[in-house]
Automatic annotation (TrEMBL):
Residue span, Penicillin-binding protein transpeptidase domain: 158-471
UniProt xrefs under InterPro entries: Beta-lactam/transpept, Beta-lactam/transpept-like, PBPA_dimer, PCN-bd_Tpept
Name the record gives this protein: Penicillin-binding protein 2
Organism from which the protein derives: Corynebacterium hylobatis
SUPFAM superfamilies xrefs: beta-lactamase/transpeptidase-like (SSF56601)
Any one Gene Ontology BP term: cell wall organization
Ranges of residues in domain Penicillin binding protein A dimerisation: 52-134
Amino acid sequence: MNRSIRFVSIFALLLTLVLLVNLTIIHAFREEEYASNPLNQRGFYELKSTPRGQISAGGMVLASSAADEEGLYQRSYPSENPAAFGSVTGFLSDRYGASGLESSYNGVLNGTDSSLFASRWMDVLTGRDTAGANLELTIDPRMQEVAHQQLTANNYEGAVVAMRPSSGAVLALASSPGFDPNPLVNPSTADATWEALNSDPGNPLINHASQETLPPGSIFKIITTAAGLNNGYSAGSSLTGAPSITLPGTNTSLTNYAGQACAGGGSVTLETAFELSCNTAFVEMAIDVGTDEMRSAAEAFGIGEDYDLGLPTSPGSLGDIPDAAALGQTSIGQRDVTMSALQAAVMAATVANDGRRMEPYVVDRITGSDLEELRSSEPNEITQAISPEVAGQLEQLMLASERNTSGGRAGIASKTGTAEHGADGTPPHTWYVAYLPDQDVAVAVVVKDGGGYGRGATGGQVASPVGRAVLDAAGGA
């Protein structure tokens, strides 16, 4: 063969080989990268040409799609109060992408998820138009709207989470400030809305219920008490009621609220200390129990653990506990302890569920375009965090705590919290966790920075009325 022809042939063969390798890499390993690239308008128009699945809760449609005059499907959020549900549904915007369940369940909603392979083939075989699948949520619309209204009507920044202790189903997940998704999906208002939301110091695009972690204050005493009950303490155990206690190895004193003695000072029972939320008693008990037992109890209740809700979550933390002084501060939910409202609700729900911690979930069922069930969520027990006996003792203590809380009601098991943070003069975060033993519902509320009540704000004053209103709405849940 002529040398020039042989050279050209080899060169052509090499080019062909390079082309095949490149095509293999693109199709086998980088298909998703290119298919998901926002510059790939072909994929965009293909998805816009397919009806996206609905998101609904309790029969209320929260997100749906309708075809415009060009045959492209546009997303909308048609409930009467879309801002109440925006932190859960998220948004789907041509300009700014997706968030919330619209993002995490994108493949399910647009029909491309691998789990929908069989249903897609059935559509092909039967000649039906391909459509996305639907999400049916565990959210109770009335509870969600009441939670949202309680926060926004009072100009509170914070969050409310309600859940069913026996299963982990989330009944409400309200976040304030929040947002209405509709202006973000409307091209004529999207840019201005996006700019306003991102410049808002309250961070409305953050899910404050599951994503934001804050010092929990005295609601953490539920975990401290669990550690004590696990290690020989009982409701009648004797603890200090002194107005202050010096942290070991320091000259620093930790005081009760407003520097008051607990029930007159002297010795008090654990029941009295819990009912009156006496800091000094819990410092004494935690130091006696020790760091390992405290950390074990916190981990059993899920502190430091993420949950797969399809929504952004933060794990919270117990923080470092290098010595007894740090342990004393940790015991009352201060120092480096952080929790989200979701984790606080899980904590209360665990006590309500005889000590069994269930995995929280928001998506109840996935259905096809014909509304036939494709997949459903099953309750999942993560761990037996505490024994049923310890849970029963905690319930009695929480019933007593509610009786001593402003506006307290019989039949509610609760604990309030007032968490100091920031510089001196910064109003505290206020907390309330509670459950109804006879209705299988638990709630957690956090109102940030005192809710406008200043340095004197307390969980009983600010957060507990919100929680009770949400529990009142649980009658139909």
